[in-house]
Design goal:
The protein is mainly alpha-helical. The chain contains 16 helices and no strands. Keywords: Membrane, Transmembrane, Transmembrane helix.
Length: about 300
């Protein structure tokens, strides 16, 4: 997310254990976002929830971003690139996800989110011609098999019939946008400090989503936003809007978009556990098979060969 790789590598989390911590923490924060969205489903409309989450994040980040903006401004930043980053990372990857929470479980949302590495790899190959390591291809295949097991609940008949619900389609749209955001951060970095860029995504996301939230109110009525909605938006703004995006963006800077996206394979493990613990969602035997395949895929796709380590 920095204007140069050298600047990015010198910051927080650049040590070996710092990278490991961020790699494990980012998917946990994203899983918390999905569980929170599922908890709020039905009480807060999805676009309203996405707008509130970004508004909270923008206000939290304003004290960090304002001094930089006053001193440097943003005249040196490509406005087209910035708009694309905001649309992918702040609008299209968030609102559909919260819409999906009304139709499916937090665990299923997370399992679909774990398709990110495959989509990122395909985007990087198609747009930038990035060659995929055999180990990463094997890891993607292994983890994707685990996702398929859980998505179709271990039912081969459901797989052959390709039974999906509206939540699956909404989540697929969100994950496609998120994958584009991930790849874009790596190959077209914005010349802004990470937290300033995150503020731009948050403020831009809130600004773009606000008119759609008003349209949502005209169709479904003004929602009665009580204490649950307030605390839920505060939680999502802090945990997902600031914590998850900040940690994930840093991992992208340090290890590349392909490897960073592999951390998304850990989201289902976290989300299934949190969903069972906090929301009472049932765990099934096929979840164990799925997680074994997913975690095996993560290991295959992220462990560097000895030659790469020496280099």
């Amino acid at each position: 997310m920095q204007s140069s790789r050298a600047v990015g590598d010198a910051g927080w989390g650049s040590g070996r254990w710092g990278v490991v911590f961020l790699f494990l923490a980012a998917p946990l924060l994203f899983a918390g976002n999905m569980v929170g969205a599922r908890w709020l489903a039905g009480s807060v409309p999805p676009v309203t929830l996405a707008t509130g989450r970004w508004l909270v994040a923008a206000l939290l980040l304003l004290p960090v971003a304002l001094p930089y903006l006053r001193k440097h401004g943003m005249s040196h930043v490509s406005k087209k690139l910035l708009l694309l980053v905001v649309l992918l990372g702040g609008v299209l990857s968030v609102a559909p996800q919260y819409g999906a929470a009304s139709y499916t479980s937090a665990g299923n949302i997370a399992l679909l989110a774990a398709m990110t590495p495959l989509l990122v790899a395909m985007i990087e190959r198609a747009v930038w011609g990035i060659r995929l390591r055999p180990a990463m291809l094997a890891g993607i295949g292994c983890a994707f098999s685990g996702i398929a097991v859980a998505t179709f609940r271990g039912d081969l008949g459901a797989l052959l019939r390709l039974q999906v619900n509206p939540g699956d389609l909404l989540m697929m749209a969100a994950i496609l946008a998120w994958s584009g955001y991930t790849a874009l951060l790596r190959h077209r970095p914005v010349a802004l400090p990470p937290m300033v860029l995150l503020w731009v995504v948050a403020a831009g996301g809130a600004a773009c989503l606000s008119p759609m939230a008003l349209l949502e109110w005209t169709q479904a009525g003004v929602p009665a936003l009580g204490a649950q909605a307030f605390w839920g938006m505060l939680f999502l703004g802090l945990v997902a809007g600031v914590g998850a995006y900040g940690a994930y963006g840093r991992v992208v800077t340090l290890v590349g978009a392909g490897r960073a996206s592999m951390s998304m394979y850990l989201v289902p493990a976290y989300a299934l556990g949190l969903g069972a613990l906090l929301l009472g969602e049932q765990l099934q035997p096929y979840h164990a098979v799925s997680m074994a395949l997913v975690l095996g895929g993560v290991a295959l796709g992220t462990v560097s060969p000895a030659k790469t380590r020496r280099a």
